[in-house]
Amino acid sequence: MKNFAVLTLVSLLAACGGGDDPRAFVAGAGKDLRGKVDPLPEVKPYEPFTYAATDLPDPFKPRKLTPPPGEGKGGGIQPPRDHAKQILENYPLEGLKMVGTLQQNKMTFALVKTPDNNLYRVKQGNYMGQNFGIVTQVTDTDIKLTEIVQDSGGDWTERATTLEMSEPSTQQAPKK
Description:
Blueprint: H1 2-16, H2 22-29, E1 97-104, E2 107-113, E3 119-122, E4 127-128, E5 133-138, E6 142-150, E7 156-164
Antiparallel strand pairs: 1-2, 2-3, 4-5, 5-6, 6-7
């Protein structure tokens, strides 16, 4: 067994060695090679472009679609302009929070908190938000409104919206 291991080792060493000198190989490896670099592509001269968009609409200004003749811009729903403006119409609907309800004389009121932390009582028929939103129903969990908004054609349309009760705050009063 010992002889077999020695014989295998000697044959492996013989296989690795022999042959060419590595220094001679490296010296002769690049003898016949010639490098070729492609010429750079021709650079085209800059041609300025004059952008004349005087006949195109400004992409940063909102546009209204022009309705077909005989449609739009006329009758139909109009926002109420003859009512006395109420305090909650000064705030966007997204900034108002329903925080509770109150019942007095068999009438349910919603308690609405404004962004500046004022609390207001709201009932059916009151106006809220900046889109002529009128309160249609007050429940224990939400306020249902009908807003009158202008569509892309310039006509006024009604949109049903709901202001839901906000989650109770998890903040605790600081301990003294």
